[in-house]
Structures are given as structure tokens and as C-alpha cells.
């Protein structure tokens, strides 16, 4: 009974509701005014307060809209009806998505091959054009995981076997770097959007992993500030404070045995406090597993794990 009354108690301001539902404040206002989707209570200075029940309804409405429905078609449904509708839409999307994913996989392979040819020819313009074409044809995860990452991996292997020269790798890194930089949103990020800082710590100069983390996080709906490579803990923490970031993501690629890195991670945690989630990835992150655990950072291997983590952090 008591739990029930808490559920209907208007106790969440609009900022919290916006953060939890991913709906912008102006959308919340329109849904209220035009459709009476929920009826928040008004307190001093006309501020709205929402209950848990309101948030649940808004989340279901948002998921229905993500599935292709229009607000006017679903707003009158109760929560149970909405849940059924959302589940049916998601099932249909998974089925269509599986077919689409297999098309995308073969598309990604042909874009990857065309990019590799451009690298071998040392043709920066052609590589840039091929990446732009791939960006049009593929969804962002397929572009990153099906083209960019395997391309850099392959170049690294051909380089260490002596089949490609350092210049090929430098040209490709420069083009990929600027392409990834261009993928970052230029729009102003709303306060209601959760924020993530991406960087590499001091003496870690491979930055493509961090740039990829930035692009992936942005496609998950996070506001992202990409700081660059080789940054001291104090600088990263100051940026996190200024942007009121909930997450700091670090990429650790090379070297895997820097004796000063553990101290740097400890310093970062001290400066960040314990409310900011610290995520660590990259091919050498495991080499620092002990300190990663000590500073209560989370080690993630793949971009899929990153997406899952960002989704769960967003809703908590
Ligand atoms: C590009 C590149 C460079 C460029 C970097 C350009 C730049 N601005 O970043 C340059 C030319 C500068 C360079 C220099 C060197 N490099 Co280099 N480089 C590479 C190369 C070819 C690609 C790296 C890359 O960007 N990969 C693409 C990214 C996207 O992949 P990734 O970093 O593995 O990240 C993936 C995951 O780990 C994850 N991830 C990464 N970070 C994070 C973070 C989070 C939070 C999460 C969730 C996930 C995540 O996401 C990515 C996608 O799956 C690799 C070869 C390779 N196979 O990777 C060598 C490589 C990393 N380099 C290597 C070496 C040895 C060097 C040099 C020492 C070479 C030299 N003798 O000078 C120098 C060192 C420079 C320095 N001061 O540190 C070695 C490292 C070996 C080792 N022991 O670990 C590699 C593996 C090559 C090799 N096979 O020997 N390099």
C-alpha cells in the first residue's frame, strides 16, 4: 500500500524525467498539453513534478514511437496495452533486423576491400571517398566494426609482415582519424542528455580506439566530449567536472607495461570521486587489470559491451 502511494507521488522534476526517458523537455510539454499523455502536478513557479507511474508511461510511449508509431495513435492506451504493442514491434524489428544485418555484413566486406585497395595505392582521396560511401550504405555499428576496425587491424598486420610500409599506415591513420572526427555531432548538446568524456591517458598515443568509443557513444544518444590522446588525470577530471559527465571512457593500447599508468588511474579516480563511472578498454587494458579493479573502473572488451553498458547506465 505504502509502495503504491510512493509510485503515484509526484516527486521527480522535469530534468530527471527527461534524463530517465530520453525525451526532451519541449517534447514532454507538448505531449502533456496536446495529448494529456501524463498530468504532472504543478508546484511553486509552475514547476512540474512527475510520479514513477508517469515516468513508466512516458518510457512506454517513447518505445512505441521508436517502433514507428505516432504519439496520437498510442497515447490513449494503458500501460499493459502499450507493453504488448512495444513487445510485438520489437519482435518484428529483430526479424527484419536479422535480414538487414546479413545484407550489411556483405556490404561491409566490399567496402572494407575497396578501402584496403586505396591504402595499398597510397591514395588518401580514394580512401576518404570510400569511407564516405560506406557511411551512406551502412549503419554506424557496421561501419565501425565491419570496416574501420578490421581495416586498421589488417593494415597493422600487413605492416608487421613487411607487406605495407609505415607511410601506408600513417596515411590511413590520418584519413581515418579525420573521418572519425567528422562523425562527431556539431549540434549543441542538451543538458538533459547524459555526458561522456573520451580520451587516452598520458603516454598512450594510439587514439583511434578513443575516437571510435566517442562515435559509438554518440550513436547511443550520449553527449560526448572527445579530449584527444595522452592526457594527464587532472585534465580529464577537470573536463568531466565542467561537462558534468557521468562517464569517463579511456582507451589503453600501447604500451602495456607503463609503470606510471597505475598511479595515473588512481589519481583520476581520486579527482573524479565515486559517482562518475570509469570505463576502460583497448588491446592493453587487461595488462592493467589489477589497478583497473582497485579504482573500481570497468574493463570492457568490445564495442557491443560498451553499448550495453551505456544503455544500462542511462536508465539508472
Ligand atoms: C594506427 C597505429 C599506429 C599509429 C597511431 C595513430 C593514432 N593517431 O592513433 C602510429 C603510427 C602513431 C603508431 C605508432 C606506434 N605503434 Co601502432 N599501431 C597502429 C595500428 C596499425 C592500428 C591501431 C588502431 O588504431 N587500431 C584500431 C583501433 C580501433 O583498435 P583498438 O585500438 O584495438 O581498439 C579496439 C578495441 O580494443 C576497442 N577499444 C579501444 N579502446 C577502447 C576503450 C573502451 C572504453 C572500450 C569499451 C573499447 C575500446 O575498440 C576498438 C574496436 O574494437 C596497430 C595495429 C593493430 N592491429 O591494431 C598498431 C599497434 C597498436 N602499434 C604498435 C606499435 C608497437 C607502435 C609503435 C611502438 C611503433 C614504433 N616502433 O614506433 C609506435 C608507438 C607510438 C607511441 N608513442 O605510443 C603495436 C603494439 C604492440 C603491443 N605490444 O601492444 C601494434 C599492435 C602493431 C603491431 N602489430 O605490432 N601506431
CATH class of the largest domain: Alpha Beta
CATH superfamily of the largest domain: Cobalamin-binding domain
Tally of alpha and pi helices: 14
The H-and-E topology, N to C, reads as: HEHHEEHHHHHHEHEHEHEHEH
Extract low-pLDDT stretches: none
The domain tally reads 3
* First and last CA, distance: 25 Å
Ligand inventory:
cobalamin
Strand content: 5-15%
- Which value, in Å, is the CA radius of gyration? 23 Å
Strand order of the largest sheet: 5-4-6-7-8
Mean pLDDT: 87
Helix content: 55-70%
Indicate the CATH topology of the largest domain: Rossmann fold
Largest sheet: 5 strands, parallel
DSSP strand count: 8
SS content category: alpha/beta
The CATH architecture of the largest domain:
3-Layer(aba) Sandwich
Shape: globular
SSE topology:
Elements: H1 2-7, E1 12-13, H2 14-21, H3 25-35, E2 41-42, E3 48-50, H4 52-66, H5 71-74, H6 79-120, H7 124-137, H8 140-160, H9 166-183, E4 195-201, H10 208-219, E5 223-231, H11 233-242, E6 247-251, H12 261-272, E7 277-281, H13 289-294, E8 298-299, H14 303-314
Parallel strand pairs: 4-5, 4-6, 6-7, 7-8
Antiparallel strand pairs: 1-3, 2-3
The structure holds cobalamin.
Relevant terms:
Rossmann fold, globular, Multidrug-efflux Transporter Regulator, Chain: A, Domain 2, 8 strands, 3 domains, five-stranded parallel beta sheet, binds cobalamin, alpha/beta, Methyltransferase, Methionine Synthase (B12-binding Domains), Chain A, domain 1
